[in-house]
Amino acid sequence: MNITEIYNHVRKRTEEICSVLNTEDYVPQPVNFVSPPKWHLAHSSWFFEEFLLKKYLPDYKIYDDDFCFLFNSYYNTVGNRTFRAERGHITRPTVAQVYDYRNYIDIHMQLLLQLKDPQVHELLELGINHEQQHQELLLTDIKYILGCNPIFPVYDVNIDWENQQNSDSGFFAFPEGVYEVGHNGDGFSFDNEHGRHKVYLEEFEISQNLITNLEYLEFIEAGGYSNFNYWLDEGWAWINENEVKAPLYWHKIDGEWHMFTMAGIQKINPEALVTHISFYEAAAFAEWKGMRLPTEFEWEAASFKLDWGKRWEWTNSAYLAYPNFKKAKGAIGEYNGKFMINQMVLRGASCATAKHHSRSTYRNFFHPNERWQFTGIRLAKK
Amino acid sequence: MNITEIYNHVRKRTEEICSVLNTEDYVPQPVNFVSPPKWHLAHSSWFFEEFLLKKYLPDYKIYDDDFCFLFNSYYNTVGNRTFRAERGHITRPTVAQVYDYRNYIDIHMQLLLQLKDPQVHELLELGINHEQQHQELLLTDIKYILGCNPIFPVYDVNIDWENQQNSDSGFFAFPEGVYEVGHNGDGFSFDNEHGRHKVYLEEFEISQNLITNLEYLEFIEAGGYSNFNYWLDEGWAWINENEVKAPLYWHKIDGEWHMFTMAGIQKINPEALVTHISFYEAAAFAEWKGMRLPTEFEWEAASFKLDWGKRWEWTNSAYLAYPNFKKAKGAIGEYNGKFMINQMVLRGASCATAKHHSRSTYRNFFHPNERWQFTGIRLAKK
Amino acid sequence: MNITEIYNHVRKRTEEICSVLNTEDYVPQPVNFVSPPKWHLAHSSWFFEEFLLKKYLPDYKIYDDDFCFLFNSYYNTVGNRTFRAERGHITRPTVAQVYDYRNYIDIHMQLLLQLKDPQVHELLELGINHEQQHQELLLTDIKYILGCNPIFPVYDVNIDWENQQNSDSGFFAFPEGVYEVGHNGDGFSFDNEHGRHKVYLEEFEISQNLITNLEYLEFIEAGGYSNFNYWLDEGWAWINENEVKAPLYWHKIDGEWHMFTMAGIQKINPEALVTHISFYEAAAFAEWKGMRLPTEFEWEAASFKLDWGKRWEWTNSAYLAYPNFKKAKGAIGEYNGKFMINQMVLRGASCATAKHHSRSTYRNFFHPNERWQFTGIRLAKK
Amino acid sequence: MNITEIYNHVRKRTEEICSVLNTEDYVPQPVNFVSPPKWHLAHSSWFFEEFLLKKYLPDYKIYDDDFCFLFNSYYNTVGNRTFRAERGHITRPTVAQVYDYRNYIDIHMQLLLQLKDPQVHELLELGINHEQQHQELLLTDIKYILGCNPIFPVYDVNIDWENQQNSDSGFFAFPEGVYEVGHNGDGFSFDNEHGRHKVYLEEFEISQNLITNLEYLEFIEAGGYSNFNYWLDEGWAWINENEVKAPLYWHKIDGEWHMFTMAGIQKINPEALVTHISFYEAAAFAEWKGMRLPTEFEWEAASFKLDWGKRWEWTNSAYLAYPNFKKAKGAIGEYNGKFMINQMVLRGASCATAKHHSRSTYRNFFHPNERWQFTGIRLAKK
Fold first, then answer.
1. Chain B residue at shortest CA distance from A94
2. FRET partner for C35 with CA separation of 20 to 30 A, picked from A293, B19, C8, D159?
């Protein structure tokens, strides 16, 4: 596919994700970290308008001035943003108007793409990858919104993500030595994975399989959530304040564990990979097992051996700048760098990640208590 | 109109109120005290189902079990209720399904009304008055939802409520003595206005006119919001914590005061009656004027002389039980009595009140900081 | 006793209350509504300095400018006040310095009292009554501070307040009619009990005895704290949010109810009058009994028949202005009026009230959730 | 000094730190992260009782069972702990009783030390180092408590810590390559600095001097606190929510910057090293300078060249486990490992650190918003 085809394909995929929603489903923001589907649709379009059309398409007329501040996310450089926590109270523009906005952007993007302006390429790739990131958030935010509803609506009965299983087992061993990590420059990549550099790793072993629901149930039944010895101090406070006793979306119904899935409420499948796990839970599980989580560099060094793409895998690495990290100038510089505090790196990809979006150097990151993504656990040991 | 016609008329009016809404507008709950329009539509129908159809219509089949707990409000007797603060996150049932529910209830209510069961009459009147109360809340909640939107959507350009003016002026004087207050038994009334009883009032004077925007602006410009001497201690804390500097919906745009109205954003009309005032503000204004708010009994004694129906008028009476107050048995007993703490009585009616719904003995009540109703100020003095 | 003797007697009594404290006990403010004993000692002295010595004693030299803002309470007129919530973090001036301040004030008050300035009399009486109010708060705040300590320190083994019992039983009946309430002008009284005025009361009956621990235990054992039918809506929310299951200071130890008293931890005495009850609990108890709390006017009309002085008795009257209520000019005007919102009136006096301080027209007031005073329950019925 | 002399010396030093306090100063806990001096005195004694005397001194009699749960800190293994936020409300045991407890522990420790039990040595060293850590916290907590007081009490006029200056300037350059970091096993060290291991560092330069007040004032005056471009996203939220506009303890008085010091309030000394800086501020300052903070490994590799010991220096490394990190068994295992989340590493030592306590491999750690320690800024660049 050429870049125009990729653009069109990705844009269409975003709308496909929303095709089974009712208008009402596009509106709410049940918690701060979830955004209304309507907002994702508009914001990913705003990104192309703000960073491409306004600058590179001659005589481009902004669709609507109001959209600029309504659908900006965190780009302080661009202007006053709407308070993030209030996104769910904004009923206008309507969903229909947002789709009209998308259409308007797409029509003008076709014009821009015909100009074949070489300056545009890098930002275009960023916009496409940005939209793919929002596709994953759309899916996990829709799951969260539906999961808030006591009547547990189904998103799609044909999606079987929560039942994915391992295809491998056992541990791989890696020797001590200098390894290279980080992106080497070919193909698209985010600034946070530049530049390629050397790290020194001690000898380590990394598991070929992810933890299953069965293994996680053993942890629960062994009293994992009530023994402070397994927990980081802040993790222990977190489970107690929030009365966490199981992964997100798990419900005990008539004495049996169930899970809310994209296909509705289901009994826990013991063979399936556990998911919707916070870093705190992943670390406590590893402690209980007498092992540990891999670092992001161990993971990357081992990645060529791993089957991955089912769950985002928590690492024991904090999300920090690589040596020689450079922020881009202007608003694009706000993309990644300013989030480099109090977050942990996840590696791999999940069932909800857009195809061909991730890679072995990709650094995803969330706060240690966040678990509405399709996260999972891979263990390491020395 | 007979009771069936009244029922049909009131039910139709509720839907008229929503006729200009988009689907998205039915969903959010921006603050705890506001409910989504969808919820009002369903809840007022649920009331007829729960208290009339289930008990008095032979072979009635409940529309949907889920609706019972989704659209119950605070009737603890009836079953587990949804948490009030989460109403805005429930996207299903959809708006269309809620209208279908209304229709189902109305069809069965026609059947019930044809039975002419005399037992039904009292609960039917209560249900109709309950729906009228929710009509007013629908209007004020819709205004709140639209007013949260930085682009200030219009509800109806033909509504001119915020520009209503006084038709009278001056003070009426009333002599000291025993007066009778409370409802005397003819026509529908709520339990909180029973039973009629004597009160002893000192000599008092009550104003024939309500306070205007012009008078309120004088208070603002005289530093009313920055001089603690005018304020109750909790009122002073409230304006400081919330940075309150003017009535709700007032915005200073380019140095000039504007107000968000049902017809959109407008410049303040100095002749119009001030509205969206908390009890704290009403009491501070009165203190600044060297007067006071009337008690609810002074108001009721004077009511035959007053032109009212434009603004709910704050009184200096706490919402408490009348002598001989009796709670009804069962869930209906939860209607009013359990709210008799920390709220102040408002008398009269407002531009948003359903016609023929209020009366001179009617007791409305809100917390002293609440001001999203069409409230106003009438002064009294000795 | 002449006024100088009364002054000296009251000032000495304040220090007696603190005589068994350790220096450490004078410092903490465990919750916002409790003040450190050190603060009470200084603040009651500051009152005499601010309102009497500075104005009426020629050539009076202020003890220390810092004390003016450290020990002001809520008198906005006088200057910047310390934030109330921070009182427990202020370690200097020390306790010894505060006693030195008291001594300095007392020496200068002797000089002022010798002048026999008639202007001084009214403020002097207010200062003495103010100090008596703080004596009661000192006792209840000390109890609260000691009660926070998991090792339950004893204040005074000889105090037997929590074991006081009823001396009467049965109900008195009063006929319908006009009654006079409020203070008539002889002797000291607070502005909130002026002026004497007529009220019309329906026929009522009021109990001669207060509720005992035994009766209250019956309410607990009958599931009183888990049946919403007995509770005001905000009371129900309050007990659930705070996990309230019994009066303040009750602890279940090895399956048996105990109570922290001024004399340490003791088993519940069934004959003793229940105390440390919120308005919410008093109202729920009355509802469970099929009765109600008296209004403050019923209480006052009946007071000549009642034995009282053991517990502050919650009434079902909100704390609001009497007809003809006038605020004094200046800072003294802040004494009572500005608290007339969201509080309920208590009548009588408690075991901790200074002798001769209360009277039948006295209006005490607290928020409906507050219960660290020695409060109790008297029932009424029609 | 032999180990007994060291023990006695360190214990005496703790009491010297408190020698100028009044009894009242020992009591408050103004914020969660500060502990009352009384608590530090007791807790550091409890450590010796719990981990040494109870286990290794024959026939040892516990001083008081209550002290075990009152003065435990976060050692969940040992038993129920007091809630950390309530430490400031516990007035008993008194300060005198706490000193008596210290004395009792010291007497029994002499007995234990005479036994020369080799098993004891490691825990004894840990207890001494633990007490030294609390000496530094005592000093910074005392400063915080005094700094809360609007009258700014002096701790010691002879302490000149806040006026310390640089003795070097310029940058050192280090070449790319493998470096060794971590403790190598000689002398006491904490588990978090084990074991010595290789890291690969890119070429870097590190400053010989720390940032001064003058340089930091330039940042303030250049609008550093109002330009989001310099800040991490959570840092930007933190300064806005807390209205942070300068380092902790800075006050603008009559238009001039002052600082609360151990010796009282003083004008800012431009030559002195800036201190009481959060990680957020350090990172923003570095961004503004176009440089960055060093990683903890760069710092350690360069440490033999650096003059340090005046300010704890924020690094851009998260506090995480080293390869081969092993938790000790039992309660001692809770010492460090469970805090390895959401904290950043500081290296070096400060003016308030006990002599000979720190070393080049020492890893101190605090949350990125914490700044009541004597923290400072050292820059690095590539």
1. B24
2. C8
Residues C172 and C295 in one domain: yes
Question: Are residues C190 and C279 located together in one domain of the fold?
Answer: yes
The whole-angstrom distance between D47's CA and the closest CA on chain C is: 20
CB-based contacts of A366: which residues, under 8 Å, 6+ apart?
A279, A343, A344, A346, A373, A375
Burial of B199 (0-12, 13-18, 19+ CB in 10 A): buried
| Alpha helix stretches (DSSP H) within C222-259 | 233-241
- C-beta atoms of C339 and B233 within 8 A: yes
CB contact at 8 A, D7 and C68: no
Are C133 and C236 in a shared domain? no
Shortest CA gap D96–chain A (Å): 33
Q: How many whole angstroms separate alpha carbon C98 and alpha carbon C118? A: 29
Mean pLDDT of chain C: 94
Region C23-50: what's the mean pLDDT?
96
Q: Residues of C with CB below 8 A from B279's CB?
A: 341
Q: What's the domain count of chain A?
A: 2
pLDDT of residue C328: 79
User: Using CA atoms, how far apart are residues D67 and D77, in angstroms rounded to an integer?
Assistant: 16
- Chain D closest-CA separation from residue C248 CA (Å): 17
Encoded tokens for D257? 């910057």
Q: What is the pTM of this model?
A: 0.95
Nearest CB among D178, D202, D368 relative to A341 is that of D368
B146 interfacial to chain A (CB closer than 8 Å): yes
Q: Which of C48, C28, A137, B46 is nearest to D91 (CA)?
A: C28
- Closest partner CB to C89 (pick from D26, D94, D145): D145
Other C-beta atoms lying within 10 Å of the C-beta of residue B97? 17
Structural contact between residues A63 and A101, judged by C-beta atoms closer than 8 angstroms? yes
- Residue A81 pLDDT class (50, 70, 90 cuts): low
Looking at CA atoms only, how far is residue A170 from chain B in angstroms?
A: 44
What is the C-alpha separation between D11 and D133, in angstroms, rounded? Answer: 12
D and C make contact (3+ CB pairs below 8 Å): yes
Q: Is C25 on the interface with D (CB under 8 A)?
A: yes
Spell B124-136 as b/e; 16+ CB within 10 A means b.
bbbbbbbbbbbbb
Distance from CA of B211 to the nearest CA of A (A): 32
Residues in C touching B300 (Cβ below 8 Å): none
Asked if residue D345 and residue D196 are part of one domain, the reply reads yes
Q: Which residue of B has its CA nearest to A82?
A: B150
Q: Which residues of C touch B294 (CB under 8 A)?
A: none
Phi-psi region of C40 (alpha: psi -120 to 50; beta: other; left: phi over 0): alpha
Structural domain harbouring D80: 3-147
C318 touching D (Cβ < 8 Å):
no
Q: What is the pLDDT of residue A79?
A: 58
The band of D223, judged by pLDDT with boundaries at 50, 70 and 90, is very high
Closest-approach residue (CA) in chain B for C315: B320
Give the ipTM.
Answer: 0.95
Q: Is the pLDDT of residue A82 over 80?
A: no
The verdict on residue C156 lying in a domain is: no
Between A and D, how many CB-CB pairs are < 8 A?
Answer: 85
Alpha carbons within 13 A on the beta-carbon side of D208: 10
Residue labelled with tokens 């079987």: A160
Residue matched to tokens 């069932």: A351
Q: What is the per-residue DSSP string for C11-40? A: HHHHHHHHTT--GGGGS---STT---HHHH
Q: Render pLDDT for D78-87 as a digit per residue (tens, 0 to 9).
A: 655 555 558 8
Residues D133 and D168 in one domain: no
Which residue, among A227, A229, A281, A315, would best test binding to D if mutated, counting the most D CBs under 10 Å from its CB? A229
Picking from D201, D202, D341, the nearest residue to A232 by CB comes out as D341
> Considering A90, A124, A147, which residue would you say is the last residue of a domain?
A147
